[in-house]
Amino acid sequence: MKKAKIYFSLAAMLFAFSAQAENPSIPSEKEPKVISAEDLKRMDEIESRVMEIKKMDFSTMDKAEKKAIKTELKELNKEARRGGGLYLSLGAVIVIVLLLVILL
User: Fold this and answer.
1) Inter-residue contact 6 to 102 (CB < 8 Å)
2) Taking a C-beta distance cutoff of 8 angstroms, is the pair 66, 53 a contact?
3) Domain ranges within the chain, ordered by starting residue
4) What is the Cα 36 distance to its own chain's centre?
5) Distances (CA, A) of 56 to 2, 26, 51, 53
6) pLDDT tens for each residue of 43-92
7) Would you say 99 and 13 are in contact if contact means Cβ atoms under 8 Å apart?
8) How far apart are CA 74 and CA 77, in angstroms?
């Protein structure tokens, strides 16, 4: 009985995930992302600013200046990471780990 429950839950999860997957035979409407010269220039500016911040001496700064630099770094990081990527929710990670534990 226990094996039947496991197989049923596995089949239900596989069905749920396959319903969300894209059909490879249908061409995707998304075009490949092309990085423009302006974006490359901005990435170089961001990288040089981050290197300047890394070279700074934080021991002489007061708390407000450190906080300003920290917020600036967060904004630069958001701007640099803008775009595509693969994001997994916590629930998806838990399901994957459970499947691995059950199957292995």
Assistant:
1) yes
2) no
3) 37-79
4) 22
5) 61, 52, 9, 5
6) 899 999 999 999 999 899 999 999 999 999 999 888 887 755 566 778 88
7) yes
8) 5
